[in-house]
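Summary of Year 1 activities. Much of the first year was spent building the evaluation harness for sequence design. The harness presents a backbone, in tokenized form, and records the residue chosen at every position. We chose the following record to illustrate the format because it has been used consistently in internal testing since the harness was completed.
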């Protein structure tokens, strides 16, 4: 009797282990799905324009961004000697997508925005000195607009949400009272993917999608004649006309 009981117990124990294993596998899958969903939810798609003091549009792009760390520069000296960055990653005031992270994500793909000169010297937030060699000096500073609102705080305090438009304008006017008029877009509009495995979506026009970041992305282009620069592992939709993998 005891032997039969022990044998039955072992079978029951094995079945229990199997059920626990199935439950753990399902839980792990659910957690992975939830983490992916949360990551996708934290990504936003924002328009970005950078305008120099003469009103010339340096960049007009659509940028996918998330919570991005921004590397500071010791050469960010627009507030005087000794006010440069530490050279490390600056603490971000807004831990969700923000205007400074948006600019950093765009600069990772768009060479015209590099070097990015950012300092973490001051406790009130990150200070932006230079974008692509266009530097703040004297009375010139980088004014920030989110939609139609002038941002009084530093760019890392300026939260951004899906569908918004962010403008960086180097100007002497403070507070800046007018958003520079957008220039006409020539050729394909740059569409920048966020670093990491995120969905990348194009606009309704002809796009140049930049999604080479070493992570597996899912890319959808929509209408227009689109050119995509993708990683070899990226999933690229049939609506993307020209695909160059690297």
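For this record, the design step produced the sequence shown next.
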């Amino acid at each position: 009797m005891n032997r039969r009981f022990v044998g039955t117990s072992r079978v029951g124990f094995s079945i229990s282990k199997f059920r626990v294993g199935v439950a753990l596998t399902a839980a792990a899958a659910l957690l992975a799905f939830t983490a992916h969903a949360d990551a996708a939810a934290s990504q936003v798609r924002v328009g970005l324009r950078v305008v120099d003091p003469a009103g010339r549009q340096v960049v007009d792009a659509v940028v996918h961004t998330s919570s991005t760390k921004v590397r500071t520069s010791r050469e960010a000296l627009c507030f005087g000697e000794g006010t440069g960055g530490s050279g490390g990653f600056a603490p971000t005031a807004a831990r969700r997508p923000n205007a400074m992270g948006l600019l950093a994500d765009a600069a990772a793909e768009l060479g015209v925005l590099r070097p990015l000169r950012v300092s973490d010297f001051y406790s009130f937030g990150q200070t932006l000195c230079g974008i692509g060699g266009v530097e703040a000096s004297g009375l010139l500073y980088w004014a920030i607009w989110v939609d139609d609102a002038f941002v009084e705080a530093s760019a890392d305090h300026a939260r951004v949400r899906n569908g918004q438009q962010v403008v960086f304008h180097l100007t002497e006017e403070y507070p800046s009272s007018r958003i520079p008029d957008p220039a006409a877009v020539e050729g394909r509009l740059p569409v920048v993917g966020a670093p990491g495995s995120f969905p990348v979506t194009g606009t309704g026009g002809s796009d140049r999608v930049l999604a080479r970041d070493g992570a597996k992305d899912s890319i959808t282009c929509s209408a227009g004649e689109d050119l995509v620069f993708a990683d070899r592992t990226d999933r690229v939709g049939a609506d993307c006309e020209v695909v160059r993998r690297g």
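The chain is about 20% helix and 30% strand. Quantitative recovery figures across the full test set are reported in Table 2.
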